[in-house]
Amino acid sequence: MTAYKRAAAATAAATALLLAGCGGSSGNGGSSATTGAIDFTVHSEDPKYSYDQKEYSAKAGTVTIELVNDGNENHNLLIQGISKSKFKLSVLGTGSSKTGAAQLAAGTYTIYCDIAGHRGAGMEAKLVVT
Ligand SMILES: [Cu+2]
User: Fold this and answer.
1) How far does the centroid of ligand 1 lie from the alpha carbon of residue 90, in Å?
2) Judging by DSSP bridges, how do beta strands 124-129 and 40-45 pair with one another?
3) Do 107 and 80 form a contact (C-beta atoms < 8 A)?
4) What per-residue string of b and e applies to 33-60 under the rule 16 or more CB within 10 Å gives b?
5) How far apart, in whole angstroms, are the C-alpha atoms of residue 86 and residue 101?
6) What is the mean predicted confidence (pLDDT) over 1-24?
7) Using the 8-state DSSP alphabet, how is residue 48 labeled?
8) What percentage of the chain has pLDDT greater than the value 70?
9) Which of 13, 34, 70, 109 is 20 to 30 A from residue 51's alpha carbon, by CA?
10) Is the dihedral of CA 17, 19, 60, 130 positive or negative?
11) How large is the average pLDDT for residues 51-78?
C-alpha cells in the first residue's frame, strides 16, 4: 500500500514536471519567478480612475494580486491596513503590470491607489478575504 502510494506520488511529480516543462507557451506573460496562482487581477482604468471591479475576493493566506495598467497614467494598489513597505504594486505607463503577494487573514479590506487625487476620484475597491 505504502509502496503503491509512493509510486503514485512519483508519477504525479513526473507529470507535474512534464507539465511545467511544456507550459512555456501558455501566454503567461514571461518567465517571472512568481510562484503560486494569481488570485485576482485588477485593471486600472483611467481616465475613469477606477479598478475594473468594485469588489474582489480571495482566499485567506497568501493572496497574489496582479495589477495591470489599462490606462495611460501611473497607478498603484495598496491594501488599507497593510503597511506599504509590505505591500504596494506600482504600474508605470500603459500596459505595465506588477504582481505581488500579501498575507491576509479573513476580513474585508479596501484596496486603493494612493496617487494624489485618484482615490478620491474613485480608485478604490473592496477586497473580501474568506
Ligand atoms: Cu491611480
Assistant:
1) 9
2) unpaired
3) no
4) eeeeeebebbbbbbeebbbeeeebebee
5) 9
6) 42
7) T
8) 72
9) 34
10) negative
11) 94
Domain map of the chain by residue range? 24-129
Residue corresponding to grid cell 500579501: 102
Q: What is the pLDDT of residue 47?
A: 77
Neighbouring residues of the ion ligand 1, judged by CB less than 5 Å: 75, 113, 115, 118, 123
Distance 18 CA to ligand 1 centre (A): 41
Tell me if 60 sits within 8 A of 104, measured CB to CB: yes
Using CA atoms, how far apart are residues 40 and 99, in angstroms rounded to an integer? Answer: 10
Residue 12: exposure state from Cβ atoms within 10 A (0-12, 13-18, ≥19): exposed
Name the maximum alpha-carbon separation found in the chain. 63
pLDDT in tens, 68-126: 999 889 999 999 999 999 999 999 999 999 999 999 999 999 999 999 999 999 999 99
CA-based end-to-end distance of the chain: 37
What CATH architecture does domain 24-129 belong to?
Sandwich (2.60)
